[in-house]
Amino acid sequence: MDENSAGKQVPLEEVFNPRGVAVVGVSSPTTGGGFSFGGLVVLSLIKAGYPAIYPINPKYPEILGIPCYPNLLAVPDPIDHVVVNIPAESCLALLDECAAKGVRSVHFFTAGFGESGEDDRAALEQAMLDKARANGFRIIGPNCIGLFVPGRRVANSIDIPLDPGPVAFLTQSGGHAQILPKSSGPRGIRFSKVVSYGNALDVNECELLEYFAGDDETEIIAAYVEGVRDGEGFARALAAAARRKPVIVYKGGKTEAGLRAALGHTASMTSSVAVFEALCRQTNALQVDHLDEMIDTLTALRFAHPLPAGIGAAMIGAGGGPAVLGCDELERAGLNVPRLSPEVQDELKRHLPVAGSIFTNPVDTLNLIDPRAIDVALRTVGSSPDIHMLVYHLGFHPIGSWGMGRFSTPAFLEPVTAVIRAARDAVGKPVLIALRPPEDLEGMKEFLAAQEAFVAAGLPVFHSLRGLAGAMSRVAGWKRRKDRTTSLPS
User: Fold this and answer.
1) Residue 446 and residue 408 in contact, taking contact as beta carbons nearer than 8 Å
2) What are the distances in angstroms from CA 313 to CA 230, 339, 371, 476?
3) In the chain, N or C: fewer CB atoms in 10 Å?
């Protein structure tokens, strides 16, 4: 390490843009060594197309067809980022190698530190931090899965969409860091950066919030937080980030059992739930209580455009039972399902079948799987000034085997997506697609084809009416508070 860089913190921009990645503690699956996390990272980097991968293990000459080196100093090329998968007891010696090699950041997948509750392990963490500060490199973790930066082809898991997008995710949980990109991918959500930071020994939620608030590649910030060490610093960072971009926060450890688990998971002493919730209200952060709620809220922020100007919602689709269910879910979540005016109802009756139909809101008639009928319903109902969002529900009614194959055909999907987009643009209000996954295999194939078409058209797809209602209520409230704050005189 250059003497001039000693004691200086490497900025996160450099951490997210490594020229070379070394993975220390890799086992070879081809020689009976099993497949460690280190091996998964090497495989993920290969599949992502990252160009400079350096497995480190003196036992093997190569790993997955890539030359394997006995130690960091044996690598002839620059290494900026190191992934560590070795026992905790060996980590201090490794950090000396990192310092000599000029490494910029070290990610510890290794666990067994402060989260163990043992004093000597907490002291080991502090010694690691002291070495990092003295030698000018950063530590991510320990006890986490580190970085996923799709735009730089830095990956730590396979089968996750590698095309970049505008969502940043900071999380103390490694599992969530893998689950969120994978589960939200079919809904069209893509990420600028994902950081699993575990015990937050060095890089922590405050610094990450500050970085993502100013990151040009990030438009929406999502966070899973179990606990923070610097409460005042977190409050300032969250407030500053939420003033610039929407921030979704999932707080883990809200129950007695959850608090206990958080302490053992990432050594997090969680703050009062009431204080945390008050902070989210004060900063206008969007709070969720489940990863599914986070995905629904991300879907709303990304694709429910234009964002609704109010809480008035209309239900449009086929099926009386689903229409009743939908209205209940919308209003329970804090949205309003107003009765349509006589003029709007009369206009609907001029174009849609009257027998067996409902026109008051919800709008329920059998031909609302026909593109022309969908177009009329969306444009007519969308013209009402007290309607701010339109919910089109499909697949909540047992029409044969989920649709008898019709809903997955281009002959259905292409004209339907086209009229929905055109109606949305004409009325200037978001159209939300409620598309419940079926339970049979043939229906699931049809569902996936329909979801893919709606997502490709830039439409927000929700898997339940309850999830849709909760997400839109959060986003509508967030927008109302944001608009009110923006309109205040400075």
Assistant:
1) yes
2) 41, 10, 21, 11
3) C
Distance from chain centroid for Cα 166: 10
How many Å apart are CA 394 and CA 433, to the nearest integer? Answer: 7
pTM of the entire predicted model = 0.92
CA 421 to CA 202: how far, in whole Å? 46
Q: Identify the pLDDT of residue 30.
A: 57
Question: Closest Cα to residue 223, out of 263, 168, 149, 163?
Answer: 168
Output the six-digit token pair for 450. Answer: 């329909």
* Structure tokens given for 486: 């923006």
For residue 209, how far is the Cα from the chain centroid? 15
Cα separation, 47 vs 42, whole angstroms: 9
